[in-house]
Amino acid sequence: MPLALSEHRGQLSLDLVPGKRAGPFILGAPVGHMVRLLQTAPHLMPQVDCKYPEDDPLATDWVLGLHHAPPPPTEAEAGTESSGTLGRGRCGTSLLFEPTSQRLRAVVIHNPSLLRLTYRSTECQSNKTIATGLLINRIFGPTHPGTFRADTGVFTLHYPGISFEFAIPERHRGLFSQPGDGLPLEFPDGTTPPCSCIYLYHGVDWSSALPPSPLTYAAVYRALTDLPSVTFATDCRGTLNQGLTTAQDLVADLGQPETVFYKNDDKMSIHAPGTPDEGHSALGRDYFFNYYEMGFDVLLDGKSHRCKKIVLHGNIPGHYDFGRYRKCEFQLDLAASGKLAIGGTVGQWYLTTGSDWKSISNIVNTDGQPPVVFSRGSSDQNPFGSTLFYGQAGIIFEIMKNDSIPTFTLF
Question: Where residue 268 falls among pLDDT bands split at 50, 70, 90?
């Protein structure tokens, strides 16, 4: 993570780089990066809301709403009765993520007064400075005429990669009624409007902006099992063969995993056909190589150190592991196998990270077997509830209540 959160006199401080970033909030960054970044400074953001369409997580933007802690009270405020409420955070910034790529597409600062903002080392908003129309025009320089919405009374000043909104008092709205009036940022009475909202984005307009292209090329990594081939994107090239690829091969091709997790007990092994429950041995424990940045885990045999399973993560909001893994972009070609089809010809069937159970359940043959219910502890430990596991022909599908598939396990 190249940048960290910074503060100035108790306020979150953001350096505005139009079209690229607001402080450490870098456009194009994965949602997991931003979640982990926010966890480093709870004193600056005592509350973070995660908003997404629960029924269809890919329908609209995912939004992280940041509640900023107000700055410490001044000496004049310290003894007042209202000073006791200053510890409550107020929602002042939203991070908008494009749901398919799960990358940051826009930063919306709803309440600039809660932050310290700079541009090219010049302060444009702080405890001592107010981001007014005249100040923004002086710091950011000349630009094209802005746009005015008569129904809301909001005037928007546009620069490449950043836009500023100003709420115009009703008595001055007539100054904006004629097109081509320029930039009436100073009113006849000598006042100038304060900035009410800031949009930082990549592209022409924040509402249609998409995340910038990733800086690194995602090469194809191939996983071969007894199923048809699976391809998924990583930053390296290689082939992952079930039963053949070793831990040493993974380190050579992909580098060291972020973590190594040793299994203490496999509670799902009792459901494996033909596998007796022989108890747990402390020797030769199976273990996972966790590649969070690539979005997958590899289960390795504790004795042979060869690949046994591959877990591909979709990073779906509302799932227990949301924010921990980067979304794994993969494509599973089922065209060569009839095992998953219910009668007839399979045709071209593909599974991807965006597949949901409703769209693929008609081609997955579960032989009428009921799913396995999986719960990760009590409601205090896991407020999202249990998930269902369906297994067939070398794949285990984990299904959420909204039919999303957060993980695909290949074995």
Answer: low
Spell out where 6-46 has E strands.
6-8, 11-17, 21-22, 25-26
Instruction: Give the Cα separation of 253 and 277 in Å (integer).
Output: 35
pLDDT tens across 178-229, in order? 655 567 788 999 999 999 999 999 988 888 899 987 644 445 556 666 665 6
Q: How many residues does the chain have?
A: 411
Write out pLDDT tens, residues 13-37: 999 999 999 999 999 999 999 999 9
- The answer for residues whose C-beta is within 8 angstroms of residue 246's C-beta and 6 or more apart is 300, 304, 305, 306, 307
15, 118 contact by CB (below 8 A): yes
> Both tokens of residue 1?
């993570």
Query: What is residue 295's three-state secondary structure?
Result: coil
User: For residue 343, what pLDDT band results from cuts at 50, 70 and 90?
Assistant: very low
Contact (Cβ atoms closer than 8 angstroms) between residue 292 and residue 321: no
Two tokens, residue 387: 């998930």
Cβ atoms < 10 Å from Cβ of 81: 6
- For residue 104, which phi and psi values (nearest 5 degrees)? -65, 125
How far is 109 from 115, CA to CA, in rounded Å?
9
Q: 395 has which bridge partners?
A: 392, 410
Q: What is the bridge-based pairing of β-strands 103-109 and 90-98?
A: antiparallel
Lowest mean pLDDT among 40-49, 193-202, 232-241: 232-241
SS3 for 238? strand
What is the DSSP track for 183-224?
Answer: ---S-TTS--PBEEEEEEESSS-GGG--PPPPSS--EEEEEE
**Residue 191 CB partners (closer than 8 Å, separation 6+):** none
